[in-house]
Fold:
Amino acid sequence: MQVLEDLFYTKSHEWIKFEDEKTALVGLTDYAQKELGELVFVNLPEEGEETKAGASFADVESVKAVSDVYCPLTGVVGTINEELLDAPELINESPYAAWFVKIEDITDKVELLSAEEYEEYVQKETEE
Amino acid sequence: MLIFEKGQKGRGSGILPACDVPVVMPGEKDKRETDLHLPEVSENDISRHYSELAGKAHGVNDGFYPLGSCTMKYNPKINEEIASLPGFTEIHPLQPKETVQGCLEVIKTTEQYLCEITGMDRMTFQPAAGAHGEFTGLLLIKAYHESRGDHKRTKIIIPDSAHGTNPASASMVGYTVLSVPSTGEGLVDLKALQAAVGEDTAGLMLTNPNTLGLFDKNIDIITKIVHEAGGLTYYDGANLNAVMGIVRPGDMGFDVMHVNLHKTFSTPHGGGGPGSGPVGCKKFLADFLPSDLFSEDFGDKDKETSIKSIGRVKSFYGNFLIVVRALTYISMLGSGGIPEASKHAVLHANYMMSQLRDIFTIPYEGNCMHEFVMSLSDLKKETGISALDIAKGLLDEGIHPPTMYFPLIVPEALMAEPTETEAKETIDRAVEVFHRLYERAKSNPEALHEAPASTPVTRLDEVGAARKPKLRYNFQDNGI
Structure:
C-alpha cells in the first residue's frame, strides 16, 4: 500500500491535499482502490455544489458494487476532474494523481490523519 | 451465432391463409428507406436456435440455484397448467366486465389471500416486479404526506443491510436516502435510527429478515420510532419466504409493502418471467393505490378509483397470468402448507450453513432465517482466492453461484438461499462441492482463477464489458 507523506487522510479512505488553508484536492487512497478493485464508473458532484464534511458527495462503481465516497471537507466544489468520468481506471492506476474534486472556501473538516496515522489505522483495520 | 446469421434469403416460416381483404400499401413517404433486417429462417431453425440458447443457460430446471435473496424455488408445473386454461389466456383487458368475472375473481381472491398472509388491507397487482413495487409503495407514502400538506418530509431511511434496490427506488421518487448502520449483531442500530428520524422523515424501508438472513427482533420498536417521528414504514417483501404464514409485516408495524410473486409464490423469474410485485397497504393508504382495484362485487372499476389515486404504474391489471400462477401455488399449499414451506426454507438454510461453518466464516452468530451470508476474507488472505473465484468454480459443477459481494457490510460475501424445494441430497452435494473448491483454493489456486472451464463461455472480462460495452449489433460489420 502506498501512502504519500505530504497528504492528509480520512478513516473512510480519502486523501486530502491542501493547496492553502481554504483550498484542497480530494481523492481516494491507494488502499481504497485496491479494496474496491477495477473501477468502471465514477459519479462526481457538480461544480458549485456545497459539500458537508462527512457526507457522501461522489460514488465509484466496480464490477462488484457501488460505493459512496465521503467528502472530508465542508466547502464548495470548485473544479471536478472531468478526466475521471471517461477514464475511471486512472483511479486504479495512480490514485494520488487522480483527484476527484477541488474544494474551495473550506470552513470545516472531519478528523484528518497524517500519513503515519493512516498507515497505522489501515494496518489495524486489516488485522481485525 | 445470432438468429440473423442463420437461415437463407427467402426462407420463412408458416403459411399464411389467403388474404380476404383488399391489400393497401403505405404511401411512398411512409415507407422505410432501407430494408428491415428480419431473420429469414424456417420454423425448424427457430426452434433449434432457441433450444440451443436454452441449453447454454442455467435455470431452476437445470440445477441447484442458491442465489441469495432471490428465492429461486421450483416452479410447479400445475401453475403452468392452470395459467394456460383458455378462460385465462384468451381474454382482453378491455372486454366487458360481465364476461371476465372469473378472472376478476382470481385477482380478488389472490388479493384476499395475500392480504391475509401479509397483514395488509388492500393490494394492487399492477407493479411488474419488486423494484417497481418499491417505487409504487413510495409513491403512496409521498402521496399520503402531500395529502396532509406535509411537504417537509424528504428523506427515506434505509438500513445498510437493506436491498440494493431500496436506495435506487427512493431516489426515483425524489427522496434523499439516509443510511443507518447495523450493530455488531447485524440488526438495525436503534440509537442511530432514533438520531436519524425527524420532521424530514418520509419513511423507512426495511427487509426483515434482512440481507444477512437475520430477523430483526426489535422490529416493533423500529416501526414505532419511525411512526412517532411521523414517518411511514415500507416492508420490502423480498425475504418473505422466511416468514410467510408465521409472522405478518402488517403486525410488525408496516404500512406498505410489496410481495415478489416470482420469489415467494413460485412464479417464473426474470428474463421475461414476467415478474410481479403486488403492493399492499393498510386501509388509511388504500385511496392512494393505483387505479383498477375491484369492488367486492367485481363491478365498475371507475367507482372504485379514488380521486387521490397515484394513477397507473402499469397498463391494466399487471401481469395477470402470473397472478393466476401465484393463486394456484397458494391454493395447492393451503393455510397449512404456506407456513410449512417457510419453515423448511429456514431449516434448509440453517442446515447448509452448519455444513459450511468449518471452511467459511459466518460473520453473525446464531441461527439464520431462509438465507445466510459467508465471508471468504480469510480464504482470500491465505490463498488469493476470492468469493468471485469460488462462484466461478461452482459453475463448472453445474451449480448457480450464491449472490456475491452483497450485502456490502460483509467483505468477500457469498449469500446463499437454498429454498425449501431442494432435497437434502442436493444441498449435501453442494456442500461437498464447496469443500472441494476450498481444497482446490489451497492446492491449486491458479486453476480456480481460470474457472469456469466447462461452460459455453469461460471467465468473462467483466471490467472490459463495463468500461467499453458493445451495446449494438452492427449488421454491416457482419455482412448482413
Notes: The two ends of chain A are 17 Å apart (CA to CA). Chain A is about 25% helix and 40% strand. Residues 13 and 29 of chain A are 6 Å apart (CA to CA). The mean pLDDT of chain A is 93.
